[in-house]
Amino acid sequence: MIDLRFKGVSKVYRVRQESAPEEGTHPLVRRLRALRPRRREFYALRDVSFEIGRGEAVGIIGHNGAGKSTVLKLLSNITAPTSGEITIGGRLSALIEVGSGFHPELTGRENVYLSGSILGMRRAEISSKLDQIVDFAGVREFIDTPVKRYSSGMYVRLGFSIAAHLDPDILLLDEVLAVGDAAFQQKCLGRILDLKRAGKTIVFISHDLGAVERLCDRVLLMRRGQLAADGPPRDVVAAYQQGDAGFVPSAPPTADAENLPRHAFITGLDFYDAGGAATTSLSTGRPARARLAFDCRREVEDAAFDIFFYSQDGELHCHLTTESDGRGFPLAPGPGVVEFRCPELSLRPGIYYVDATIKGNDWQYRCLTLSVEPGKLTRGIFYMPHTWRVRQAGEAHGAVESDEAATCV
């Protein structure tokens, strides 16, 4: 059974377009032209078609401006399509902004009733679920205190808790897992998984690619207002990470890269999360590990390894290196591994492109795409100490800790 259907849906906005005044134009003519400015058509969505079945959890991902939120607004009836047909087969609730409808002068209890009513719950339903909502949010001690005195964390926890206890057939979620601390985010994810197991249809829009993979059965990828991909989460997320972040490669960082002696070669680069699982998605503030494999064809007397992180616009954001004291170390012929460990990843959330180098021997340019999800930092964005260790043929070099080598901007 189909719960949601988009059939050839387009949404067009008319955007005012300012034009530079022509030289020699009479001031009166310029004023008259200003009264009737030129407008151009902007397609927020163009001929989008998809279907979502009863009980499916579907994620929608894409870069900013790709059309994700426009899909949500059309489903929520906040705006109407310019053309096409939208079919909704059940009771629909949308959680677009956590805490929307709260009045700062009212208590938490009063705001539960107010916000619940705005979201479509009946008073009797709110009363029956009040204790569950309060306990989930963890604000029982302050439930009769005006919410203007709540911390920002308490505020969003209560807002999400109200929405999480709705009982719709279809639930629309827009970036709601970015609320509260890490423990509460896991609690939110657990609640959404409970709704999924109960057979609710879920549409989840998020930049948290890890949560999208865990939660969704299927993912839609939007690009410039059009549906670019529709398939299994892992495949679509990989396609987004590899080619949909809007990055334009710049020139190689060194003109002599092709003329390196190449006595040692990089053969692989992998990242691991706090649990030790290989991943291309890490979180700000969480432990991270990078493992760079190499093969040495002949002895190298003064080796140094580097990993560079570039943002979508090509700007260098972080640099991990084994050359913390300005000196390298010898490599014997044969394979080996250098491992970097960071107790707290201080990269901002976003998509990063990674270069890996063996100084003077090999430079793997844009060899991996890494997604960094939102998280909490304790030491600041400019501080990322790391340790490194090189292992080769049963021997180990390094086990060195360096603060100075971690440059994050």
Shape: globular
C-alpha end-to-end distance: 50 Å
Major sheet: size, sense and barrel closure?
A: 6 strands, mixed
Gyration radius, in Å = 26 Å
Query: What is the count of DSSP helices, taking H or I runs of 4+ residues?
Result: 8
> Spans of 5+ residues with little confidence (pLDDT < 50)?
244-257, 399-409
Q: Assess the beta-strand content as a share of residues.
A: 35-45%
What topology, given as strand order, has the largest sheet?
Answer: 5-6-7-3-8-9
Number-wise, the strands total 23
Determine the structural class based on helices, strands and strand pairing. Answer: alpha+beta
Helix share bin:
10-25%
Question: pLDDT average, as an integer?
Answer: 79
Walk me through this protein's architecture.
By secondary structure, the chain is an alpha+beta fold. Helix content is 22%, strand content 39%. The chain is built from 8 helices and 23 strands. The chain has helices at 27-35, 68-75, 108-118, 123-137, 152-164, 182-197, 209-215, 233-243; strands spanning 2-17, 38-53, 57-61, 83-88, 92-95, 170-174, 201-205, 218-223, 226-231, 264-272, 278-279, 281-283, 288-296, 300-303, 305-310, 316-321, 329-331, 334-342, 350-358, 362-373, 386-392, 395-402, 407-408. The strands form 5 sheets. It has a 6-stranded mixed β-sheet, sandwiched between helices. The chain has a 6-stranded antiparallel β-sheet with strand order 11-10-13-18-21-22, with no helix packed on it. It is globular.
